[in-house]
Amino acid sequence: MVDNTPVEALVLAAAPLRTVAAEAERVAGGPVRDVRLVIPAGWGPRRRTWMRQAAHRAGLAQPRLVEAPAAVAEYLLATGLQLPVGAFIVVCDVGAGAEVTVLRRGPAGFEVLSTLADPAAGGTAVDLAMTAALTGGRDAPGDGMGDWATAQSIRAAKETLGAHPAVTVPLAGQAPVIANTTMLVEAALPVIRRVAELVGQTIAAAELSPSDLVGIYCVGGSAHLPHLDTVVAEHTGITTTVVPEPQLVAARGAADAGASNPGTAVAVEVPIPPVRRAVAIAVPGFASLALIWQVLLTAEQHNLMNVYRSVSLNWGEFTMAAVFALLACLAAGTVLGSLIAARSPTPSTRTEGGKVSIGILAAVSLGAAIAGLYAVVTSQYFGEPVGPFLKWALWPITPIVVMAVAMAVVAARQRRAPHGGWSALLAAPTGSILTAALGMGLIQYSLTADRWPDRLLFIDISGRVGGLLLGVGLVMALVAPLMFRLILSAPVAVISAAIVSKQAAGILGVSYAVAVAMWWAARLWTRIIRPATTSPVGAQRSAVAGPPGGGG
Q1: Residue 383 Ramachandran class (φ > 0 left, ψ -120 to 50 alpha, else beta)
Q2: Rounded to two decimals, what is the model's pTM?
Q3: What's the rounded Cα separation, in Å, for the pair 137 and 157?
Q4: I need a surface site. Which of 123, 161, 372, 378 has the fewest CB within 10 A?
Q5: Residue 119 CB coordination number (10 Å)
Q6: What Å distances lie between residue 378 and 79, 86, 294, 373, 438, CA to CA?
Q7: What is the pLDDT of residues 409-451, one digit of tens each?
């Protein structure tokens, strides 16, 4: 048995496109060569290909797909909005569902920084709530026409209540009822609150704050829901604007988007990391260099009568240098992704998810290469076999690599954007890195310093303090709440301080690597797989030369 569902879906989607094409040819007096279809910003390659196939089946020329929020932004520019290059805006598209997108204006167009959608936060949900309130839960006649007639009556009433305090609503199989603005507000309020939440989450996913925005602009067929602009403004703290004729804005913007040179590709710019992101990259990077330098400088070489040679070094410190090198590369993952996308001809690497995914994979490769380089250089420096050095450099970072690759897969599929954005997710806790690096440095000092009688006490205390600091750093990587850190730090720090020795140094270093791997696993679970608040990504609707779900 052959499943014809995809073909039937294409036929259904092509039918209205064919009607639109016929009308456009009648008005233009000939074939239409420039076809533009407005799509949600969250659509991936599969949906975009499906839309192109539907247009082809309808007999249209090869269409240009224009993302709805970018089309709205182009319309705002064309109608006089002062938006300098580098500025950020939010487009809140409320139709049958809701899609919220943060855009940045670049020299060659608009770049989507983040987009979240919820098909249950729009006009359809309001219609269902009003239907339940007006009918009291009674069913319409069973011929199917009753449901359709009731839905049309309630949708017309909803639109009329925007200008009148009350309206009579005819219902199939029932007596007419009176709907008023109070009923509309009660039905719309949960939807409006959800839209406001989406706005806040999308701004956070773009790693911005409301003060960074030029404005929030509401469009779509349900943008005139009562108090939508007020609730969003209260939630974000900045003024929200409902664009005039919101259901037509995306179509008008798409008509003008790139008209001067439709074939020009949008350039991908490499973002300059803000201070906090630069710190997240620099701290583990410098910590790694400091530890590997101390390993090389303080290793003890033994030479017995020029026959038997051996080297004694702190394997735990060597392992932590490799871990910190990988963490520095991962913190730079989004920057690496933008660098690769700027030079890649592949369109999939230019999407936000594609940039993050390729950036994480590049960071993993770079971090593992640096760890391997540490092993090779150190072994050659001491003239020893490379095997043990590779074992202590690569095996402890393997769980971290696995977690990072899992995040790359999630980013590529664009399942959901983490709260705070990908850069914040990839940045390891700098406090833990600094504390642990300083602790291991003190431990190595206590193990290799010249033990003059007058310095024995100072050297021993340095080693114990180093063990305490390393234990605290380990706990800081394992747990985030301050109370839990205080409870766990005391026993872990005391234990790590008590076992400080040449034999235990390797155990402490590997323990920290395991703690970092657990930190990554926890973030993958709590921020990506099972976040506290689930926000569906990507819109669930489509339109031709119009906003997604524009008819609310």
Answers
A1: left
A2: 0.54
A3: 18
A4: 372
A5: 18
A6: 63, 45, 12, 8, 21
A7: 877 765 445 655 677 778 888 999 999 999 999 999 999 888 8
